[in-house]
Amino acid sequence: MNSQIKAREVRLIGFDGQQIGIVPLAEALRIAEEEGYDLVEVAPQANPPVCKIMDYGKFKYQLSKKSQEARKKQTVIQVKEIKLRPKTDVHDFQTKLRHIRRFLAQKNKAKVTVLFRGREIVYKDQGYQILDRIRQELEEEAVVEQAPREEGRNLVMVLSTSQRIRNV
């Protein structure tokens, strides 16, 4: 900006956006100073570099406002975890299912983990059945993002909201 520009000639764009043409740097600085604005290099890689006459403080302020607005509109998706055991009873299963539905309604992902303790590990087929039952119960409102897989002594499956719900 201003005296930090090193090129001898620049392609100058006026404050109103009208192209002035290729002028020596000293003349471009003089024009910007007469208008009471700054000379800002907007395309330094061009030959000759493109400079624009603008209010640099106002420009920086507008950029910060745009980035604040973008941050405000972004959504952070969290992964919420539900832990089950192979011998989880029907009522507890329904309660866990309601929790998963609530997580998905809040647009979070749900990680369902079936924990095996001690000798329960020989009943992995029960764990797969539990995860399959959850998948069937939530077929309308969720999509399996990560299929059931073994992680040590646990079975893990990740669910997220389905495409139809996301697009609405």
Radius of gyration: 30 Å
Beta-strand content bin: 25-35%
Q: With helices defined by DSSP (H or I, 4 residues minimum), what is the helix count?
A: 5
The CATH C-level name of the largest domain is Alpha Beta
Output the strand order for the largest sheet.
2-1-4-3
- By CATH's scheme, which homologous superfamily of the largest domain applies? Translation initiation factor 3 (IF-3), C-terminal domain
- The low-confidence parts are 164-168
Helical amount: 25-40%
Short description:
38% of the residues lie in helices and 32% in strands.
List the keywords.
168 residues; alpha/beta; Ubiquitin-like (UB roll); Translation Initiation Factor IF3; 2 domains; rod-shaped
Report on the structure:
- The chain has 168 residues and is an alpha/beta fold.
- The chain has two domains: 2-71, Ubiquitin-like (UB roll), CATH 3.10.20.80; 79-167, Translation Initiation Factor IF3, CATH 3.30.110.10.
- The protein is 38% helix and 32% strand.
- The chain contains five helices and eight strands; from the N terminus they run E-E-H-E-E-H-E-H-E-H-E-E-H.
- Strand 7 and strand 8 (154-161) form a beta hairpin.
- The longest helix is centred in the middle third of the chain and has 18 residues, at 56-73.
- Residues 164-168 have low confidence and may be disordered.
